[in-house]
Amino acid sequence: MKWFEQPYVNTRDWILNNLEYLNLDPLETAVVLLIDFYNSTHHLITADGLQRALHTDNDSIDRTISSLKKKRYLSIKSTGSSIVFDLSGLYEYEHPTYTSNMDMTIVDLIQQQFGTLLSMNDIEKLARLREEYGDVKIREALREALLYGKKNIDYMAGILRRRANR
Asked: pTM of the prediction?
């Protein structure tokens, strides 16, 4: 199961949190959020329905869907009697801020243990902590943070700083 398919992942929050990196225009953003909402509520998605919900015309919806498909954020698949609007490509992009500097297994581990996705700010903080303290110390800080029920990167950073000052 991919990270964005985990039951604890709120994809809409992830989209909003990463909006500045996704290179979406306002209509694309609205369409993506509406598709995500419709997918999560098992609502039938049609171009006419998107057009009515967003108070725009069919040509604008068609151009927007084509643009999202061209960016590989959206794929549309036919499964028997229904059509699936799949946003998987949106979640699989690689943002240069953390992909080159961060071993994603540590991010995955922390997200799994926290039960939520890390924000871009948290991932950037984690990348800086990793450069300064290394993976072993980060894993130790994660264990200690979890012992105290503190599921946040700032708490882990405090543990690392406190240990470094001993």
From this structure: 0.58
**Co-location of 23 and 80 in the same domain:** yes
pLDDT number for residue 81: 73
Q: Convert the pLDDT of each residue in 149-158 to its tens digit.
A: 899 999 999 9
Q: What does residue 33 show for φ and ψ, rounded to 5 degrees?
A: -65, -40
Task: Report the run of H or E that residue 84 belongs to, with start and end.
Answer: strand 82-86
Whole-number Å distance between alpha carbons of 150 and 122: 14
Buried b (16+ CB within 10 A) or exposed e, 54-72: eeeeeeebeebbebbeeee
**Domain end (from 63, 91, 119):** 91
**Contact partners, residue 104, CB within 8 Å, separation at least 6:** none
The model's pLDDT over 40-98, given as tens digits with 9 standing for 90+, comes to 999 999 889 999 999 999 999 999 999 999 999 999 988 777 788 999 999 876 544 44
Determine the angle formed by the axes of helices 58-70 and 26-40, rounding to 10 degrees: 80
- Nearest CA to 75 among 92, 52, 59, 55? 92
Bridge partners (DSSP) of residue 84 are: 77
